[in-house]
Input
Amino acid sequence: MSLILSDLRDGIATITLNRPEKLNAFVGSMREDLLQALRDAAGNADCRVAVITGAGRAFSAGGDVAFSKGCKRIATSMVSTNCWQRAPRSSCKSSRCRSR
Output
């Protein structure tokens, strides 16, 4: 199931956040997928307007806290096991990594 749906009809691009069971709270690549859908609409000469909506009873609850906690737990585990130190510094684009 795609978490971002897009449709173009009569010059109107409708972009739908499609995670109604969690009030369309953002997880994973939803942000990037939404941005890509907006870029696609902007690049389409047939599109005159874009409407962003949410499936179900809410537009969006924001970020999914449970998902964020899971990401934090994984990152904490990597730091506590020094997993992050094994990655080559050149593969990281963060300014923090370049300054180590």
Summary: The CA atoms of residues 11 and 44 lie 9 Å apart. The beta strands are 4-9, 12-17, 49-54. Helices lie at 30-42, 65-80, 83-86, 95-98.
